[in-house]
Amino acid sequence: MIDRKQRIALACAGLAFFSVNTVAEVQTATLEKATLNIDTDTNDFTISALHDSGFQVTYLTDDNGTPYANLPSMALPEPALTDVTNKKANDVELVETATTLILKLNNIAAHVDKATHAISYSINGKIVAKEQGGLSISSNGVSLSFALDENEKLYGGGQRVLGMDRRGNTMPLYNKAHYGYTTSSNQMYFGLSAVMSSKHYSVLFDNTASGQLDIGSSTPDELLFSAQGGRASYIMVLGESLADTVQSTVAVTGKQPLPPRWLLGNFASRFGYKSQDEVISVVDAFNTQDIPVDAVVLDLYWFGKDIQGHMGNLNWDSETFPEPEKMISELRNQDVKTVLITEPFILTTSKQWESAVANNALAQNDNGTPYTFDFYFGNTGLVDVFNEAGQDWFWQYYEKLAAQGVAGWWGDLGEPEVHPDDIQHTWSNAGLGNKTVSGAEVHNGYGHQWAKTVYKNLTELQPDTRPFVLMRSGFLGSQRYGMVPWTGDVSRSWGGLKPQVELALQMSVFGMAYTHSDLGGFAGGEIFDAELYTRWLQFGTFSPVFRPHAQDNIAPEPIFHADPVKSIARKFIQLRYDMLPYNYSLAFENALYGTPLMRPLAMKYGESDWFENTESYLWGDALLVSPVTSPNQVAWSTALPEGVWFDFFSDTRYQGEQTVDYPLTQDNFPVWVKAGSLMPMTKGLSRTEQFDTRKIEMHYWHDNSVNSSSYTYYEDDGKNPASVEKGLYTKLHVRSSVDENAALTLTLDSEGSYIGMPKQRNITYVIHGLRDKPQSVSIDGNSVPVTWDDKGKTLSLAFSCDYQQSVEVLIM
Fold it and tell me: What mean pLDDT comes out for the span 306-311?
């Protein structure tokens, strides 16, 4: 073992050719706590151990040996560096052989070839990833090259419509709007400079510049990132399975804070509500038509009567919204939240233009004057969200609106939609002195920085509130600023619906777990397609956010449609509210462990069979959802994984490991429950605020093939931002077991507490899958009355229990 403070000379042991950078032998190396500093005759670089499952590699000199000024990391949370420097000597180990330096962290390791400084990575002693050209800094920019195995499959690139296995594709690394996309898109609103391999590693290129990602397209055995300058750094994360790799990747880049519970409700949203009276009347219609709703979203008409000419006003249009505070208060009294759109473009015709210029809030030309350009909405400047002056100026308007009662924030056009390469940003606290950075260098980080500004200021302004930040674009790690992304201006067509599972899953595995679509489709559509609308809303019931949104030539809200569309929508929106305890537990799992809400089947079942599947997904562990994405279907063909599955709506039993044809009607939807699943539900909510933690229905789907199962239900007050950090929540552990006599036992235990937690709960078990009424049912050895539904073959029994009381139910 090499002493951690000792500089060591290392001999050359041969040469190798790499496709990007020049081979250079390691000359000296120093290990200081968790960072290995390596000097070669050209590139000097560091390898730092991150979290428990990853490494960060950063180049300090270019391919000519000249010092290189790196931009700050965006992919990593700010505590990451502290995590590295605080690691103790026994957290990492450096081992030297004749040819290699090996930096070990737990069961993973980075192996540096002394002769070439190429790095390979292992888990449990097995090499799973290798640099091919590694990092390179040249006059052409920054690049990163890795070798690919012949049979390797990869997720990556973020929002694209290319199929789940992205291998064989070249794609721009440049966030850009794709209006009205359908079944193919190689460049969209929220790209990610990252891949995740079927070999259980992920590579994150920590570079925000305009560039390209080539996943074995130009050269079949090479993964190649390239960028127009920017940061020369990447992150390697290693896992023991796909699920482990997903969780570890999110752990490294930062977990999503627990959102407010109302995020899981129904949103009234369109492009857009044109007056205060219209907003109130829409919410009134939801109330009178008995359709739950939790928030109303105001698009750009809140600050101007027309689409063009008003962006950047950042204040209410007093003619159409004469009493906004009264409107917001009236909605709040009905437990309906108000969400407003903002954009980072300040038109030269807007009311705030002179203020923005006077306060140095805008990105600049080379000569230090505001950079202006024309785009669809008018002649404009762009808020410099990297600059403290720009951040402070922009934030004052959010602060005023928050004081008026606005509860949620929608950031649109944040790619930014138009962002000249030569526009100059002043990145405060980046260690650059007076040097500016170009739009090309930070383009993909703009939305991320905007979200960071909004989120951090909100947490200081409203320390007792969980921010809601809806944004169209960002970067790796944006989830840690509470970002809720959506998939942009999708075509209002069956072609627009088809790729939504792929888009959400590709984002979710990298941490953007609340990625969702404009339900019903946004762009185009001259004639209302009732079936398309209905199927999209049914899919939305099992999505992270339920938000119908569209151009208003066709109403996106169900209240404006006739039966049977309205009645079907009402049924599924009510189901969404009935599922609130289960869905909120999924949010808790995400905040605690980084586990997505929507999950690829490959995270749970055989990866060789399911890695590329885009037709279905898991909603949590219990539910398999297969959205209907074609019209006029009488049956929907779906491949089921191993095990026994029940139709969520009829309890029809299906044997897994086969493709089944699900019989379709207009008001059912292909959703299966895995046998042995436990699922908490509630009844009759019209607002998420009405959720009563004292009353829980715990559903269980029984099959004798499942000997045992378990489930953890998470609960808190739905509001406290410190619930996860301070452990202010409770967990109900429910376990099932079946003995040799086919007797079913359900046990309930709890742990943890929070302020306001009920001292007693009324729990109703609903058992599905039984063939006959049981002969006896007892709770803690005492016989109890039950309700048996002979038609549905379900058993219901109710009981009360105190906090942390253990309860055992025996069904024979």
Answer: 96
- Residue 264 sits at φ, ψ, to 5 deg, of -85, 5
Distance CA 481, CA 469 (A): 8
Query: Mean pLDDT over residues 211-234, rounded?
Result: 98
Confidence of residue 150 (pLDDT cuts 50, 70, 90): very high
Q: Are strands 807-811 and 777-779 parallel, antiparallel or unpaired?
A: antiparallel
Residue pair 811/739 in contact by the 8 Å Cβ criterion: no
Q: Which residue has the tokens 């003995």?
A: 739
**pLDDT tens digits, residue range 374-389?**
999 999 999 999 999 9
- Beta strand spans in 724-793 (E): 730-738, 744-752, 760-768, 777-779, 782-783, 787-789
Cβ-Cβ contacts under 8 Å for 563 (sequence gap 6 or more): none
CA torsion 179-184-190-192 (nearest 10°) is -160
Q: What are the percentages of helix, strand and coil residues in the chain, rounded to 5?
A: 20, 35, 45
Q: What is the pLDDT of residues 464-509, one digit of tens each?
A: 999 999 999 999 999 999 999 999 999 999 999 999 999 999 999 9
Structure tokens that stand for 314 in this block:
């950042």
Catalytic residue, chosen from 294, 441, 489, 502, is: 489
Among 294, 317, 415, 417, the one annotated catalytic:
415
Give yes or no: 412 in active site. yes
563 flagged as catalytic: no
Question: How many angstroms separate the CA atoms of 35 and 47, rounded?
Answer: 6
Cα 414 to Cα 472: distance, rounded to the nearest angstrom = 6
pLDDT above 70 covers a percentage of the chain that reads: 96
Per-residue confidence (pLDDT) for residue 88, from 0 to 100 = 62
First to last CA, the chain: 62
- The pTM score is 0.95
The residue-averaged pLDDT of 599-623 equals 96
| Confidence tier at 19 by pLDDT (50, 70, 90) | very low
Is residue 535 scored above 70 in pLDDT? yes
Cis status, amide bond into 344, omega within 30 of 0: no
Q: What's the CA gap between 214 and 229, in Å, rounded?
A: 17
- pLDDT (tens digit per residue) in 182-215: 999 999 999 999 999 999 999 999 999 999 999 9
- In contact, 135 and 117? CB cutoff 8 Å: no
With vertex at residue 659, the alpha carbon angle to CA 658 and CA 665, rounded to the nearest 5 degrees, is 135
CA 446 to chain centre: 18
Nearest CA-CA partner of 446 in 513, 486, 390, 489: 390
> What's the chain's length in residues?
812
The per-residue pLDDT for range 548-575, each reduced to its tens digit, is: 999 999 999 999 999 999 999 999 999 9
Pairing of strands 469-471, 483-485: parallel
Average pLDDT over the chain, rounded to whole?
95
User: What single DSSP character describes residue 23?
Assistant: P
In 3D space, the residue among 58, 45, 434, 438 whose CA is nearest the CA of residue 228 turns out to be: 438
Q: In what order do the strands lie in the sheet with 295-298?
A: 267-269, 295-298, 337-342, 408-411, 469-471, 483-485
Query: What is d(CA 787, CA 806) in angstroms, rounded to the nearest whole number?
Result: 23
Structure tokens that stand for 182 in this block: 């359908």
Find where tokens 């067509």 sit: 493
Of the candidates 412, 502, 557, 621, the residue annotated as catalytic is 412
Pairwise CA distance, residues 497 & 520, whole Å? 8
